[in-house]
C-alpha cells in the first residue's frame, strides 16, 4: 500500500449543544479521503472527542473546517466542564497508521500548526512526539491551570505558545497539536461490587505504581450493573499487549476470588493488536497480518488508487 | 466496490525445489488484476499452497500459466510427500469474495476446467459446489488411494474424470477444480513423534467420524521436526470457529499427555475469524469489527473507488 494513512483524534470543548456538535463533525463526514470513525460528546466533561482516519491532506482540510466551526461557536470565557481544557479546539493528535512514520507525523503536526495559526489566529502548543520543549511532551504541563490560568500566564516566556503571539485568542484560547502512537482503551469488568478490588488490581497493573510499562489504569464502580471495572489505557500496544494486561488482571483477580465477567475494547483498535492477541492464545507460530484477506484487499485497493 | 473479486487457492505438488516453486508463483506476481496473497511450500508435505485474489479473468490467465510450469516440472510417478495428492496441479478452488455469487464461481470453475483440459491435457474432476456427481463434493472421495491407486482405477466408470479421457496424464496425474466457501487451513503441532496420537485426535475432531461439523482433519508426521501434526481444514468458520477446534485438540492431547507445541494458520483467513477467536479468549463483549481501524479504511477506500 503506497497511500499514507493517519488517524486523528481531535477534542473540542463542546459536549452539550447538539447542533454545534453536528456542525463540527460535518466536515469529517463530507470530505473525500477522510472517514469519521467515531464521535462521543460528554455533557459532564462538556467535551467532544472525534476519531477519524484517512489521507493526511484530506484530514487536515477537514480539521481546519471543523476547527473554524468550533472557534466561532465556543467561548472559553463562558465554558464550564469537568475535563481540563485550554481551547475551543483543545487537542489535535496525529497518529501514524500506514506508510507514514512518526517523524513524518511530527512534521505534519508542525506544518499544520503553522497553517492553523495563520488561518484561525489561535496560538498553538506542540506536545507528545511533536513537543519543541521537552517538558511539553506532557499534555498536563501545557494545560496546567487550564484556560483561566494560561490566559494570565501566557505572557511569561515559559508559557509562550510555540506558534503565535504570547496572548490567547479571546474566545477560543489556544490549541495543543501533536503526534503520538495509537492508544487502546481496554476495560475489564469484575464480578463483584467491591471497588476496592478493582482499585487494588489497577495499582498492580499501572506503570505509575510499578506495574506494566505503557499502561494507565484505574479502578471504578459500574453502579447500574453492580460490577466494578479495571479501566486501562494502553499507550503503546506493541510494548505491552492487551493479553498481557488481561492475564495480569485475571491472575490478580484470583487473589480476591473474583471472576472476570467480560472485557470491553472501547473505540478503535489496530488489526495488528487483534492478530497479536489471537496469536498468543492460539499459540500461532509465524502468523503474519498479511494473511488476513481484508488487509491484503486494503493493500491492493491502496495500490490501485495511486 | 463494484469490481468482482475472487480468491483462489491452487495447490501444487512441489514443496522442496525452490526454483520450481518460484517459477510456479511468478505468473501470480506479474499479472495485473491478480494479487499473490501468500504461498507456502512444505517440505514434509512436498506441497505448495498458493493463495491469490483478484478479478476472475486475470486469476484464470495466471492460473493457466502457473499450471503449465508445474505440469512440465513435476512427475507424480516419482513424487513423495505426506499430503495426499493426485496431480502436479492437485486442487484449484475458486472462492467468492466480493460482488460474485457462489453460482457464478461454480460456472467459472466449469468453464475453466474445460479450457484447462484443452490446454494441458490433464483430466479434471469437479468438487465441492462445482461437483457434477454428488459423491464428488468431497475431495477425499476423488483423491481416494491418491495418484498411485487412481492411475489404475481411473478406467472404472465411477472414477472417470469429469473432463477428459479416462486415463491420467502420465506425469501430471489429474486436477481437481471447484468452488467453495473460504476455507481456513489450521494445523496443530504436537510435542511427540508418535503419529498414532495425531491420528487418534484427528479422528475425534473431524466431522466424518463424528467430531465437529464442517471440520476435516488428518494426523500426520512432520519428519524433519520430529513432531506430529493434527492438520485441519475448517470448511465453514462461521459454523465452527478455530478456537473450538483448538480447544478440542488441547483437551484430547491431555489424554495422551502430549503438549500442543504451536499452531499454524496456513494461508489466508478472514478478519471476522480473527476477531471471533480473540473475543472468545479475551471474553470481549459487544466488540464490533467496525472498531478495527483497517476494516474502516477498507470501507472508505472501497467507497471512494465506486
In short, what is this structure?
The structure is a homodimer of 306-residue chains. Chain A contains nine helices and eleven strands.
Key words describing this protein structure:
homodimer, 306 residues, Alpha-Beta Plaits, seven-stranded mixed β-sheet, four-stranded antiparallel β-sheet, 9 helices, globular
Please trace the helix and strand order of chain A, writing H or E for each element: EEHEEHEHEHHEEHEEHEHH
CATH superfamily of the largest domain in chain A: Formiminotransferase, N-terminal subdomain
**Averaging pLDDT over every residue of chain A, what do you get?**
94
Q: Looking at CATH, which topology of the largest domain in chain A would you report?
A: Formiminotransferase-cyclodeaminase, Chain B, domain 1
**Number of helical stretches of at least 4 residues of chain A:** 9
Low-pLDDT sequence parts of chain A? none
Overall radius of gyration of chain A = 21 Å
Work out the oligomeric state of the chains in this entry.
homodimer
Shape of chain A: globular
Q: What's the CATH C level of the largest domain in chain A?
A: Alpha Beta
- Report the CATH architecture of the largest domain in chain A: 2-Layer Sandwich
The most extensive contact between chains is: A-B, 53 and 50 residues
Task: Report the structural category of chain A.
Answer: alpha+beta
Number of strands of chain A: 11
Estimate the helix proportion of chain A, in percent. 25-40%
Amino acid at each position: 500500500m503506497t497511500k499514507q494513512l493517519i488517524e486523528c483524534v481531535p477534542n473540542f470543548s463542546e459536549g452539550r449543544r447538539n447542533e454545534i456538535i453536528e456542525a463540527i463533525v460535518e466536515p469529517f463526514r463530507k470530505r473525500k479521503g477522510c472517514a469519521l470513525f467515531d464521535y462521543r460528546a460528554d455533557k459532564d466533561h462538556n467535551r467532544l472527542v472525534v476519531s477519524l482516519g484517512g489521507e493526511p491532506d484530506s484530514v487536515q482540510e477537514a480539521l481546519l473546517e471543523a476547527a473554524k466551526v468550533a472557534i466561532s461557536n465556543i467561548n472559553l470565557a463562558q465554558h464550564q466542564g469537568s475535563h481540563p481544557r485550554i481551547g475551543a479546539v483543545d487537542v489535535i493528535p496525529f497518529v501514524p497508521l500506514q506508510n507514514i512514520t512518526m517523524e513524518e507525523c511530527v512534521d505534519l503536526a508542525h506544518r499544520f500548526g503553522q497553517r492553523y495559526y495563520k488561518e484561525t489566529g489561535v496560538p498553538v502548543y506542540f506536545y507528545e512526539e511533536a513537543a519543541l520543549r521537552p517538558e511539553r511532551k506532557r499534555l498536563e504541563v501545557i494545560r496546567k491551570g487550564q484556560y483561566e490560568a494560561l490566559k494570565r500566564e501566557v505572557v511569561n516566556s515559559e508559557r509562550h505558545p510555540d506558534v503565535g503571539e504570547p496572548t490567547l485568542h479571546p474566545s477560543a484560547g489556544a490549541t495543543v497539536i501533536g503526534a503520538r502512537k495509537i492508544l487502546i482503551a481496554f476495560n475489564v469488568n469484575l464480578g463483584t461490587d467491591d471497588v476496592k478490588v478493582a482499585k487494588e488490581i489497577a495499582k498492580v497493573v499501572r506503570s505509575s505504581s510499578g506495574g506494566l510499562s505503557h499502561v494507565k489504569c484505574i479502578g471504578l464502580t459500574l453502579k447500574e450493573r453492580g460490577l466494578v471495572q479495571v479501566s486501562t489505557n494502553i499507550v503503546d500496544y506493541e510494548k505491552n499487549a492487551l493479553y498481557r494486561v488481561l492475564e495480569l488482571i485475571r491472575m490478580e483477580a484470583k487473589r480476591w476470588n473474583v471472576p472476570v465477567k467480560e472485557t470491553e475494547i472501547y473505540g478503535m483498535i489496530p488489526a495488528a493488536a487483534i492478530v497479536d492477541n489471537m496469536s498468543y492464545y492460539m499459540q500461532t507460530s509465524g502468523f503474519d497480518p498479511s494473511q488476513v484477506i481484508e488487509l491484503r484487499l486494503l493493500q491492493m485497493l491502496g495500490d490501485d488508487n495511486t
